[in-house]
Amino acid sequence: MPGGRILIVNPNSSARVTAVIDRALEPLRRTTSMRIEVVGNPSGPPGIALQADADSVAPFVQDTVGQSDALACVIACFSDPGLHGAREASAGRIVLGCGESGILHAMMSGDRFGIISLSESSTQRQRRMVRTMGVASRYAGSVSLSATAEDVTSPAMFEAMAGAGDELVRQGANVVVMGCAGMAHCRDALERRLGVIVIDPVDSAVAMAIGLCCLKGSRVHGDAA
Amino acid sequence: MPGGRILIVNPNSSARVTAVIDRALEPLRRTTSMRIEVVGNPSGPPGIALQADADSVAPFVQDTVGQSDALACVIACFSDPGLHGAREASAGRIVLGCGESGILHAMMSGDRFGIISLSESSTQRQRRMVRTMGVASRYAGSVSLSATAEDVTSPAMFEAMAGAGDELVRQGANVVVMGCAGMAHCRDALERRLGVIVIDPVDSAVAMAIGLCCLKGSRVHGDAA
Amino acid sequence: MPGGRILIVNPNSSARVTAVIDRALEPLRRTTSMRIEVVGNPSGPPGIALQADADSVAPFVQDTVGQSDALACVIACFSDPGLHGAREASAGRIVLGCGESGILHAMMSGDRFGIISLSESSTQRQRRMVRTMGVASRYAGSVSLSATAEDVTSPAMFEAMAGAGDELVRQGANVVVMGCAGMAHCRDALERRLGVIVIDPVDSAVAMAIGLCCLKGSRVHGDAA
Amino acid sequence: MPGGRILIVNPNSSARVTAVIDRALEPLRRTTSMRIEVVGNPSGPPGIALQADADSVAPFVQDTVGQSDALACVIACFSDPGLHGAREASAGRIVLGCGESGILHAMMSGDRFGIISLSESSTQRQRRMVRTMGVASRYAGSVSLSATAEDVTSPAMFEAMAGAGDELVRQGANVVVMGCAGMAHCRDALERRLGVIVIDPVDSAVAMAIGLCCLKGSRVHGDAA
Amino acid sequence: MPGGRILIVNPNSSARVTAVIDRALEPLRRTTSMRIEVVGNPSGPPGIALQADADSVAPFVQDTVGQSDALACVIACFSDPGLHGAREASAGRIVLGCGESGILHAMMSGDRFGIISLSESSTQRQRRMVRTMGVASRYAGSVSLSATAEDVTSPAMFEAMAGAGDELVRQGANVVVMGCAGMAHCRDALERRLGVIVIDPVDSAVAMAIGLCCLKGSRVHGDAA
Amino acid sequence: MPGGRILIVNPNSSARVTAVIDRALEPLRRTTSMRIEVVGNPSGPPGIALQADADSVAPFVQDTVGQSDALACVIACFSDPGLHGAREASAGRIVLGCGESGILHAMMSGDRFGIISLSESSTQRQRRMVRTMGVASRYAGSVSLSATAEDVTSPAMFEAMAGAGDELVRQGANVVVMGCAGMAHCRDALERRLGVIVIDPVDSAVAMAIGLCCLKGSRVHGDAA
Questions:
Q1: CB distance F124–B137 less than 8 Å?
Q2: Gene3D superfamilies, per this entry (chains A, B, C, D, E, F) (predicted)?
Q3: For the segment B159-175, what is each residue's pLDDT rounded down to a tens digit?
Q4: Which CATH entry fits the domain spanning D100-200: 3.30.160.20, 3.40.50.2300, 3.40.50.720, 3.40.50.1860?
Q5: Nearest alpha-carbon partner for F37 in F173, F153, F206
Q6: CB-nearest partner of E31 from F1, F204, F206
Q7: What's the CA gap between D119 and D177, in Å, rounded?
């Protein structure tokens, strides 16, 4: 069984968001022999609110991924800052963005996904991401909370998230993706409340990373031929 | 770490195809504590050549998935016969089709995927599958080998597969998906030859199944909140 | 004028649905010299509620079409079970699915079509069908009745159908397709009520079958050259 | 059985094209009790070569359709000049364009259609038509003959048409649509030569018109309820 | 600096609409050394209400463009009647349609545009135009005023336009395009009211025409090489 | 007539590329009273070869745009680094990316555009950009030169560019976009050679900027109402 490490990169500077992500991954850690580590970006912005925030942290993400010896790296911000660059620079490396992974996981879980987004600016980025991925015909839309990444770490936001989820279901979503890495703590409750599958993007990305690390490990162990 | 079982269902009756799939999964078995078992369909057709073949095995797939107590089931036929029905009938169950999984994995590995298909009829099904998934803007096309599922288990087919792969790259693919569960044994050689990532769909589906079993296991172990 | 026969295949076991389809075709029979026959599937499920139901009847549809000497065969279930397989197996044979035909007819009748569906599961199949056909940009959506195929043969469902139709018009449909073979009896009343064209899918498929039988007949009679 | 009339409108002034269309419909006439009449447009251009030609005949088409008492009208020019306007002005009237009908018929006959076009300008119009119809994901492309509508009435063009058809098959078409109303005379030979279904658009439109006239006639005869 | 002339062609016969367009361009005139002239079509319909109206004026537009010696011509009707034909007939000439220009400008101004349309018939034409342009994934929809081109020249329509704009924003538009050449006079007030960018299509087309005249002028002045 | 300034931002550090852009704009300068200034990015990479290069210069672009008092800013790199962020941060400011502008201009100039790209990595970015813009159905593809931004400033590259253009025309493009800001010097010769319109993206963006500055100026001068 693969040892090694999966590195989760939170590109914002919020220690609270990093802690929420880290704690939310505790149960997953118990299922694998790989180490799952979370790092933050102390010199980054407190959250990825605007496109300029996403752009500003892309070099940090690429450097962190490039210098790491982890088996797999996961970008723990729904905007996937630096994803394409990090992948291009490290061919053969497992690099996952939680936005992309969460959306692909949603596509295996229902016919149309909707996204709970932090803000109108996030919604715009999500629309662009969905088109860039080429999956717009599976996308019901995004509903915004008018909140920050730190805000959603608080249980007080649950009702707002449930309201946004209900609205997405009304708009035709039958699977809901949480559009921020800091919402993980309320996935289970939200799923029970909405009655449709709820995807935590970091969960999905780490699960895929575990699987892909096994796949990569299998190729090192030897060819099947 | 999850024990449990991942059940791989080859819906055709070819013992040779079942054996090739089984042997190809040997290295992946060494990376996980889960058991990976492969079953065939002795009463099915020798291969899924036509749409009618795919249709004829869908009930078998759904019954096998429905009666299994495996943590996850993988349909090991690129046409994913019975996938949507099996998923619908067993909400909460992990059911993966190797066609869908291979294509989603390809979308994380390159910008445009091409598919090596067995026959012109397979190509038609792949076109419909790609549109059903809503990912046609990422699809470069399929190139057919005019072969059966049994044929491709033979090393003699390697040159034909490499030729099809080269043609896909000429048509703009920068990742190539092997469009049959029985081609796994030559993935590594094909990747070296073509110079682009080559996806074995069963590999991809089993890797995702491992990851999703960990994710599911984590939810049984306890809530992160 | 072509004699011959058009065979309408209702893949479910409901004698009531078969009878409603048969009676609804009475007026069309008076317009053609071809015989229009309707057969049911006594050993099938009572309705095509789930994807597994559709999958389970595909082999019956393909056998019935394959063994018939009718000039044209029409699958009288909106999910078109077995359509692609039946077509592939009988090149040159006229095989129509009422789902496909109804949607193509709608595309000649208005800019955006909406579908009245039986259930949420039907809606999911319709979304997949619309994408498979490649016509999603013409699709306003489906609104479900939470009913069975037998239910909709009753006049008591009219108000529910009208309500679903109104909702589709609000969502931008300017032509409404009835998403079940058993709704034909209320097409006229629904059209008057909604104020937009209403398509009965079996009607559309049989009309196209009549036309295509004439076309095929013309080719037997002799070449135009 | 419906008596009545189907009016075929050739919007160009070429008596030769009108005669070719008329003669090509002879076999279809023997299959129906409806009269099938073809009219030309003596004051129109000799062919619909440019978009301006199409635009210039739209009012003629709309007037001819509007003043006719035929049960159905078919626009016998692949660019469908005046189609949307004629339909809008005569709600409830059966108005078919041979471009649209030929393409929809092709979508029931194969997965990807290609079009043999007269000229580069026709190809541009076909691309726009395919996008307007919302069916671009089913379109393999157009290959141009650099010919006029009169040219293609000559048997001498057969080799050029077969060459264009071969090229379309190479580009992934598995059904070929003849992109001009004057090509009908060589449909059968072309189909034998290419080995895929070949669609004559006027044939398809008249066949659909026959079917839709039966459907309309059935509604006059009485309600099925 | 280029002298020359930009010719704005209002294809309808309403002197009031022509005057509103002309007056609305006054401020733009002060920004350029080019003359901006507006002509109407006294023998046209009072407004382009139906598709047949659009078709009927296409030849006038093409003749007017073809005979003009203006540097650039702008079609001042949102349906862009005659645009493709005029462009094809005068390669190298700058010919802009205000519908196309307004939509392209909107695509630089926001992620999803909505259109305030005159009538349900206009909405249908706009849907077709958006698909023809291939930009449907950026289109939130159209909301109709049930008004004529003359109606919207009146300040009394402002509330109805604001209501339509609000509805478009609710439907996900973050930029609103006024779908008629006669609405220019209330663009500023509408933008203040809606809180999103509002595009007047004639404004956009004339602005692009000014820019493209400069570009063309630069090529006459001499090559940069 | 507007005075003011249009600022062209070359985000790479190549003085040669900056000089080529500057010189290529000389003829456009003679057509407007606005000043057109070009700045480079001395601390940037020598060219935007990889996605990581594009990401690394986005903050520079956003800072430069944000601190400038120019009426309009144009990003003179086909990857449009920083475009969405710069626009979002400066609502009401005219910010154009030459990639986006060149593509929109191409959409007014032909039905399908192809792009001459520097490298395979550029091609990937162009595919993503085209999907992000939502205009993939108008895109024929990209053909790469395997060159750097500096390379293409040399006349020696002309034959390679012409070859790439010919290949794009063969693939169905009827307008060709030069996919790098440093290719402007050979636009005229390339257009003569290929026989289709050739778009220089910086030219297009500056022309649009001139037009939009006039439009903005007109709103300052006073309301048309």
A1: no
A2: 3.40.50.12500
A3: 999 999 999 999 999 99
A4: 3.40.50.1860
A5: F206
A6: F1
A7: 15
